[in-house]
Design goal:
Length: 171
């Protein structure tokens, strides 16, 4: 699976109880992609979600990143036990703050890897001249890290499949 270099914002929308005027434990973690032909931002996105919701929705936090889809995916997986439905989560104030701290950390990692990802995309799009170059020690080390991570992702996928089968059997 290729990682997208789409820039954008990760946002956390809180729901305000109309009686107490306090944030409830329901929140949404979503994204807005940067597009040349679109002026939407997290505030506009929250207004779109407001339609049909009797509780006020407010943008509580925003994190900009060069790889918004990848950061959102990792964030949603990391906090999956708190997921209610889709991108809606049930989280305390502390848990929401932790989720956005994780988003900032992931965004920082994405920034540091964005140049390498852009170079990899460029090289992938460049026609081959059939010349094989020897791999440097740095490239071999990076491939080793990738291979371990790829194996862990595959194993996690297998485990998730088993969990789903077990949960379905309990119904």
């Amino acid at each position: 699976m290729a990682t997208s270099l789409t820039a954008g914002e990760i946002y956390l929308v809180e729901e305000i109880d109309p009686r107490t005027h306090l944030a409830t434990d329901y929140c949404k973690i979503g994204i807005v992609r940067e597009k040349d032909d679109d002026d939407r931002d997290s505030g506009v996105r929250a207004k779109e979600h407001q339609t049909g919701n009797p509780r006020e929705l407010v943008v509580a936090d925003v994190v900009k990143t060069a790889m918004v889809e990848a950061v959102e995916t990792v964030l949603h997986h990391r906090f999956a036990p708190k997921r209610l439905s889709g991108e809606w989560f049930y989280m305390t104030t502390e848990e929401r703050a932790r989720a956005m701290d994780v988003a900032r950390e992931l965004a920082q990692r994405a920034e540091s890897g964005a140049a390498d990802m852009a170079l990899a995309k460029h090289l992938g799009d460049t026609p081959s001249n059939d010349e094989t170059l020897p791999a440097s020690a740095e490239v071999l080390a990076a491939f080793g890290i990738y291979a371990v991570a790829d194996a862990r992702v595959a194993r996690a996928g297998e485990m998730m499949g088993r969990i789903k089968v077990a949960l379905a059997a309990d119904i």
